[in-house]
Specification:
By secondary structure, the chain is mainly α. Helices cover about 55% and strands about 0% of the residues. It starts with 12 loop residues before the first helix and ends in a 7-residue tail after the last helix.
Length: about 100
C-alpha cells in the first residue's frame, strides 16, 4: 500500500476548503491572528454577508472555525489553539449564544 507524502496545508483538500470556502469569504490568514475577538468578528462579518452559505450565519462561522481546528490537529501550535478556542467563545457572545456555566 502506497503512502502519500505530507504536503503543505495549501495543497490538501482541507487547505483548499479553508482558502476557497464556497460559503464564506474569509480574510487572509484569519486563523493565524493572535486576537480571538478579531478572529470572531471577521468570521461573523463573513458569515453575515455571505449569500452562498447553506446554514444560519452563526452555524456557518462556527463550523468553519471548528473545521480549521480539527483539520489542523496536532500541527496546531498550543498557543494558537488556545486563541482559536477563545475565538469560539467570542463568536458565541457576538451571536448571543453564550453558554451558561
Amino acid at each position: 500500500m502506497a503512502t502519500r507524502s505530507k504536503s503543505s496545508l495549501g495543497t490538501r483538500w482541507s487547505g483548499r476548503v479553508t482558502k476557497e470556502s464556497n460559503a464564506l469569504d474569509l480574510e487572509e490568514g484569519v486563523f493565524t491572528w493572535a486576537d480571538p475577538k478579531k478572529i470572531a468578528l471577521s468570521l461573523k462579518q463573513s458569515a453575515d454577508s455571505s449569500t452562498r452559505r447553506k446554514a444560519p450565519p452563526f452555524r456557518s462561522a462556527m463550523s468553519m472555525l471548528v473545521f480549521y481546528i480539527n483539520r489542523t490537529g496536532r500541527n496546531l501550535d498550543k498557543d494558537q489553539l488556545r486563541i482559536l478556542e477563545q475565538a469560539k467563545e467570542e463568536l458565541r457572545t457576538l451571536y448571543g449564544k453564550s453558554r451558561h456555566k
